[in-house]
Amino acid sequence: MSDPNASLMPAETPVQLIDEHGALTTPSDGVSEVPPIDKMVTAYGALVLGRRINDQFNALVRQGRIAVYPSSHGQEACQIAAAQVLGENDWLFPTYRDSVALLSRGVPAMDALVSFRGDWHCGYDPKKYHVAPQATPLATQLLHAVGFAQAAQYRGEDTVVLALIGDGATSEGDFHEALNFAAVFKAPVVFLVQNNEFAISVPLSRQTAAPSLAHKAVGYGMPGQRVDGNDVAALLSVLGQAVDRARAGEGPTLVEAHTYRMQAHTNADDDTRYREREEVQAWIAKDPVSRVKAYLTAQNALSDEQDAQFTEKAEEVAASLREATSVEMDLDPQELFAHVYANRPQTLQAQWELLEDELARTEDEA
Amino acid sequence: MSADTQEKVETTVATMTMAAALNRALADSLIEDPNVLIFGEDVGALGGVFRITDGLTERFGEKRCFDTPLAESGIIGTAIGMAMNGLRPVVEMQFDAFAYPAFEQVTSHVAKLGNRTKGAVRMPMVIRIPFGGGIGGVEHHCDSSEAYYTHTPGLTVVTPSSPQEAYSLLRAAIASPDPVVFMEPKKLYWSKGEVDTSIVADLSQAKVVREGTDLTLVSYGPSISIALEAAEREAAEGRSVQVVDVRTLTPFDDAIAMAAVKSTGRAVVVAEAPGFASVASEIQARISEQCFEYLEAPVRRVTGFDVPFPSPKLEHWYLPDADRIIDAIDTLHWEE
User: Fold this and answer.
1) Which residue of chain A is at minimal alpha-carbon distance from B108?
2) What is the pLDDT of residue A3?
3) Which of A 327-366 lie inside 8 A of B, CB atoms?
4) Does residue B131 come out as left (phi exceeding 0), alpha (psi in the -120 to 50 range) or beta?
5) Pairing of strands B248-250, B215-219
6) Which of A279, A334, B44, B221 has the largest count of CB atoms under 10 Å?
7) Which residue in the set B77, B86, B120 is minimally distant from A177, CB to CB?
8) Contact check, Cβ <8 Å, B84/A341
9) Over 80: is that where the pLDDT of A4 sits?
């Protein structure tokens, strides 16, 4: 007899379509397929750009031009795939480590920088780009994603919501509540866990005793799938199927992408205290960018000119990031009072006046 | 469009309980705005443990009023997503202390998303919380938790003191562009009063509920009834006591409350919550700052003790009552 839960179970090994050398492999789920070559070329261009963005942000931190940057170096395939599987009206709910995903969704570099520069907590209009504010608390955004999807469902719209989360945050209570609500209400949500092995310093083994994070889906009654998080072809295929499922009204899916955080948690972290260099080195061979280049080259699908164009485009975006940090934004301290409520209440008026007076005196002294 | 959207809100004047007034406010809001949704634990077929949502699922359908899994962070977290996507969720927390699992969602997101996005994403939602004691409830069912919310900028915290206020304030809360924590004094759920559904409340205004010239009691929600009782008994002794119902705890309406205190020169703040770092202490501080030159005596507070809410047989020793208010009034430097 067939086990009714069998269809919910993840594959025994993560789904992989292109190995670290760029060669095709047989997918463990038996159904995933490498996307058409033009899509793979587009994905490669986005990967080149994503890597460049990560490197540029890191350089800006080292130069002291931005305060902090949680890098997704090594996780670019997840970032790109999350952005590319969504349609224009779909929504992305990212975390602080997902800047590359939101830039891939069209958020301008200048606006994405606002929070890392320390100018405001969020620098873009979520409704304009269909990207929720980058969540700093862990797993809370998953519930927002579910509610957002429920609202679309209520109005009969076919919006799909993709929510990002890391491996550490799967231990939070809101992860459980979000998956449970999504499954109960059959909400059109795709949960993508980027399992990069570390929550700052704490390894995955301290987060869970489950066979995999994807297995947790079964307990909620939704399908779980595991995928090679450094294989953009596998990610596009597996996430694409999950998005289709959600759009067809079949409910949520949990996808666990196996990847690795190649750099420290942020510039304020020292990862030599908790992991061996050999371990990090071993992941360089599994790089998500180089394997796609090898694959496309072997397929004769990537010319030197095309490759150079991608690099050139990435340099342009990097230059725009450098430019954005060289201009000091004009900050109005009185804006502190402007958005707390839809209309500024009388209680904030006295504090507004106090600051107004201080600002006037500061100007007089200057 | 569903059939219920063709229904029209009818204006009535009738005597009803606070529970019925709240139910009516929810029903009228559902009729008026198709974006209003009601959900929580046991709010569907049961009609809520206090029956505040009684009959709403039956009348408006499972789509508009429904039960959720038993998880408060999940309820408020999903409400946030719905508010981001154009809806006006009205959610029920079953009891005051059962809202604590949702604290992070309330303080980190409900209160802050509008500010975080410079107003691009507003949070029009109402979190209904039955609060306070006086019903012989067991532990975790009687907390006065308002100060946890009033301390968080971005939230509007409202509490009604009568069936009329319950109807009018809840309608205003649901219509507000800002998130409202709507705290319902559960000991008043079965109190009766006249409700005129044409009366619209202004969330930015406190209200003088009894005129008086000798001193001002500043209070709210469950404590208004004991403040009025104390005022009545003082009247028999020849003292004219004014009572101010704060209604919206935050943003606080200084204008009406402070003008009232200035007019009498004496004030006692009455609230059921523990007094330390409380709404009562905030009101006391504001009076000291804004009315000092008008005061004939120190501002006093009558509050719950700074202890965990007691078990049912001891709660009457804890809860402020008219006697305790009168004792405080007697200390206000009256001329012999």
Assistant:
1) A137
2) 64
3) 335, 338-343, 345-348
4) beta
5) unpaired
6) B221
7) B77
8) no
9) no
Q: With beta carbons under 8 A apart, name residues in chain B contacting A340.
A: 114-115, 153-154
Chains A and B form CB pairs within 8 A to the count of: 139
Q: Which of B154, B252, B254 sits opposite A341 (nearest CB)?
A: B154
The b-or-e profile of B80-89 (16+ CB within 10 A means b, else e) is bbbbbbebbb
Beta strands in chain A (DSSP E): 91-93, 161-166, 189-195, 198-199, 202-203, 224-228, 253-258
Residues A206-221 as b/e (b if ≥16 CB within 10 A, e otherwise) read ebbeeebbbbbbbebb
Lay out the sheet containing B126-131: strands in order across. Answer: B65-67, B36-40, B88-92, B126-131, B180-185, B156-158, B248-250
Identify the burial level of B61 via C-beta atoms within 10 angstroms of its C-beta, where 0-12 means exposed, 13-18 middle and 19 or more buried.
middle
Say if residue A324's pLDDT is above 90. no
**Is B146:B131 a contact under the CB 8 Å cutoff?**
yes
Residue among A111, A142, A150, A343 with most chain B CBs within 10 A, to mutate: A150
pLDDT digits (tens, 9 = 90+) for A170-194: 999 999 999 999 999 999 999 999 9
The residue in chain A having the minimum alpha-carbon distance to the alpha carbon of residue B102 is A174
For residues B123-152, give the mean pLDDT. Answer: 97
Q: Stretch B78-107: mean pLDDT, rounded?
A: 97
* Nearest Cα residue to A49 out of A76, A20, A74: A76
pLDDT tens track for A243-300? 999 999 999 999 999 999 999 898 888 999 999 999 999 999 999 999 999 999 999 9
Contact at 8 Å (CB) between A203 and A171? no
CB-CB contact of B202 with B172 (8 Å): yes
d(C-alpha A49, C-alpha A59), whole Å = 15
**Residue A157 above 70 pLDDT?**
yes
SS percent in chain A: helix, strand, coil, step 5? 50, 10, 40
In chain B, at which residue ranges do the beta strands (DSSP E only) sit? 13-17, 36-40, 65-67, 88-92, 126-131, 156-158, 180-185, 192-196, 207-210, 215-219, 241-245, 248-250, 267-274, 300-304
State the average pLDDT for chain A: 95
> Which of B141, B151, B316, B333 is an active site residue?
B141
So what's the ipTM on this one?
0.96
**Residue among A89, A93, A179, A181 with most chain B CBs within 10 A, to mutate:** A181
The answer to whether residue A118 neighbours chain B at the CB level (below 8 Å) is: no
Q: Which of residues 208-247 of B touch A (CB under 8 A)?
A: none
CB B297 within 8 A of CB B266: yes
Residue type, B38: I
Q: Percent of chain A beyond pLDDT 90?
A: 87
Give the span between the Cα atoms of B295 and B303, in whole angstroms.
Answer: 21
Burial label, A324 (beta-carbon count in 10 A; 0-12, 13-18, 19+): buried
Q: What is the pLDDT of residues A49-94, one digit of tens each?
A: 999 999 999 999 999 888 889 999 999 999 999 999 999 999 999 9
